[in-house]
Amino acid sequence: MECVRCRRERAAYYKASSGEALCLRCFFRDVEERVLRTIREERMVAPGDHVAVAVSGGKDSLVLLHVMLRLWSRGRLPRDVRISAFSINEGQPYSCVVRMSRADYVRELCERHGVEYRVYTFEELFGVRAMDLFHGLWSRGEDIHACTVCGVLRRRAMNLLARRNGWTKVATGHNLDDEAQTVMMNVLMGNLDRLTWFGRYDDAEEKGLVPRIKPLRKVREEEIAVYAYYNGIPMMEQECPFVYTNPRYSLKFELARWERRMPTVKYNLYSFGRRIAERLGEAPAAYRRCRHCGEIAARDICKVCEIFQKAGYLDRYLQSITIYKH
Ligand SMILES: [Zn+2]
Ligand SMILES: [Zn+2]
Questions:
Q1: Ligand 2 geometric centre to CA of 163 (Å)
Q2: Separation of 140 CA from ligand 2 center, angstroms?
Q3: What separation in Å is there between the alpha carbon of 7 and the centre of ligand 1?
Q4: Distance from Cα 308 to the centre of ligand 2, integer Å
Q5: Alpha-carbon distance 48 to 81, whole Å?
Q6: How do the domains of the chain map onto residue ranges?
Q7: Is 43 exposed, middle or buried (0-12, 13-18, 19+ CB in 10 A)?
Q8: pTM, whole model, 2 decimals?
Q9: Topology annotation, domain 42-324
């Protein structure tokens, strides 16, 4: 069977959502052009931006870095855009294992493009490792999921680092599956507020947060896996064991089942989330400053300080972040 686009090469990938059989070259181009379209349509990158690509070590972030560097080196991104890459080592056994196996690949890729790559640790940023926090929380009988701890702290780390390094955007590897799960999750939890914020980053700056962009948000996880495989991007995927008790995990399989009967279901959910956020308009502006650390908070005390307090490390955290204050 020949590729329906170029009519020359042999088809290698069936794109169920559009019913097209594509050769590898047309498939790569399809993914890259979709990423570029997403960046342009959602105005993710502006001239002069310094975009820092967050490399978690998983295939999504590696494909993101690969595609961003490819678009950038071909001059397809707005002019005067700078690119850097970074990883955050949370300091729990699985964060290290996953990252170490790919560090060489990332270093080499960045060097080839003359782009800076650095690894930062929770320990240097916050004074403690994620594992210390887990133990603190567990020993006090506090029920906060490990994924929440890492997620909340990673976001804070990105904001501190952006301020320190002059990054104007942080790009993450979230894909269409992640976005569909987020929308579905918020519907299942009845969380209308969170749906209102879905995909909004335009008001981040005035709140002192670095805008986070997701250029892969219209690319399915399966497409990312195929793209990675045929581009020689390392695929060794060691999943963090804490993910199995994360409610999102079962939703992932549920969505995959629905997709078999309804090939566009993930995109439908994503676009539903986008449109509902647009229609509901402005996110509630009830933001204030955390009583302890002075960062943006939804309540009196920010989520980060709440976690550190419950784990018994608030003082150490406040001490270590004083160097980021300006
Ligand atoms: Zn083709
Ligand atoms: Zn705080």
A1: 16
A2: 20
A3: 6
A4: 9
A5: 5
A6: 1-31, 42-324
A7: exposed
A8: 0.89
A9: Rossmann fold (3.40.50)
